[in-house]
Amino acid sequence: xxxxxxxxxxxxxxxxxxxxxxxxxxxxxxxxxxxxxxxxxxxxxxxxxxxxxxxxxxxxxxxxxxxxxxxxxxxxxxxxxxxxxxxxxxxxxxxxxxxxxxxxxxxxxxxxxxxxxxxxxxxxxxxxxxxxxxxxxxxxxxxxxxxxxxxxxxxxxxxxxxxxxxxxxxxxxxxxxxxxxxxxxxxxxxxxxxxxxxxxxxxxxxxxxxxxxxxxxxxxxxxxxxxxxxxxxxxxxxxxxxxxxxxxxxxxxxxxxxxxxxxxxxxxxxxxxxxxxxxxxxxxxxxxxxxxxxxxxxxxxxxxxxxxxxxxxxxxxxxxxxxxxxxxxxxxxxxxxxxxxxxxxxxxxxxxxxxxxxxxxxxxxxxxxxxxxxxxxxxxxxxxxxxxxxxxxxxxxxxxxxxxxxxxxxxxxxxxxxxxxxxxxxxxxxxxxxxxxxxxxxxxxxxxxxxxxxxxxxxxxxxxxxxxxxxxxxxxxxxxxxxxxxxxxxxxxxxxxxxxxxxxxxxxxxxxxxxxxxxxxxxxxxxxxxxxxxxxxxxxxxxxxxxxxxxxxxxxxxxxxxxxxxxxxxxxxxxxxxxxxxxxxxxxxxxxxxxxxxxxxxxxxxxxx
Length: 609
Known about the structure:
The protein is α+β, with helices and mostly antiparallel strands and 609 residues long. The chain contains 19 helices and 28 strands. The strands form 8 sheets. A 6-stranded mixed sheet has the order 4-3-2-1-5-6, sandwiched between helices. It has a 6-stranded mixed sheet with strand order 12-11-10-8-13-14, sandwiched between helices. It is globular, with a radius of gyration of 25 Å.
């Protein structure tokens, strides 16, 4: 199994660990310490070695930060984790704060006294994070203290070692462009921006630029490391030598000078002393890198990671790959849904469904000669009230039966060498209530609204987020997460910079893949989320129109549950889209399934009158 069901979160361990941390802080003349979820690379997933926030607090979410003071402690999470954090941390120790409404800079400004010394690890906070924290500290009077040693590493006696999984070359058939050509494009970008160098800290960008993949973090095929790109083409790649086979080393030495990761700091200092103009992404680059450049005579150029947009705008090989991956994955999900329908209510639990789904994906991958490499994230399998926890992760402790009259929310994804998938379907176990059917249909209307949208070139994700919420808003309902995130090509299932959300400020460009996933969550009762992946494409010109337009191509192929649908709530256009989508699902997935699954699929995709 790629997914583990053992819960490593134990709130009862926090008291002793917090006490040790406070002893360390007192011994080093510090009044508090910031503990982020992030590692040096600011990715969604971190290696066990870097799970500092989870080790200290018990919280296992993908976004959060703790502030530990001498007599108080606080943990900041966003709306996705408000329920989860209450189950995982000791509320006698931690006060919960909102990462959105009262983020650490605001909290520091209002709560830390003048003269207080708040420590932080400058490798784990971005340039932008520390700029915001510094501004708040200057107003309130406390001092931010960068530390050479992370106190969590000092007191974590059984901390795992850094990962050193093998690096592999990503075939050109799936990458679609040679690494040398990608690197040449990036070097040209540096020249245009007036930079001599750029430090890449995001392993996804390094994986894309060098056409490599790894296995250093869960569910995302990344090799953790750094790169220094040079406008003159003399690039440097910082990877643990233990990760490199002879073949991979020979391939990479044609592209860059290979260096050990611990040489990064010294190399940045040397470039700075030589007058280097070094580009750092303030959203991704560690504050430590900014300080190394600025303190040694170099010039910091604040620019986005030059690989992010090229990586996000998929080429034709990547688009062809993701289409194939979604057909394969749609066949697997359809087999799972057929199997699920045949089970008696109360006979299954969440873990059984997750295990079955991974097994089906493995078998379909073997049948199509494109093996399942991993799941793209821990499957969210929420029965009844667990479905209302937006980013619920089942464990043996929380595992729940799929009960009669409940909803079951299943959000899952796969990593194949030709593409990354992410799909959510919500199904009834037994007879749903009328409220469930109404709310499901409202969520589906939001998904259809995005699916059918035509929008001007240059539109941003924030411009269209409300369209997915419109039907829910009319009934006084909403959901506390974005409508869509970017998705990589056999890379991160949550990829920036593209997103459909109130905070989605990046233009939606042709070739970007995003999720389309409105939802509704009734705390303590059920959750509903429906999700397809979509591709930004050029829209056919309108003869009378003035503007070039984009539209979305739906990539995901699996039926929606008609038992939860109220067709009378759909407009004629919405119903036409749904029937056309289901006809396409049958046409593309039907040849890949047979027997009972084919019969089930034919019924599930039959036209709705």
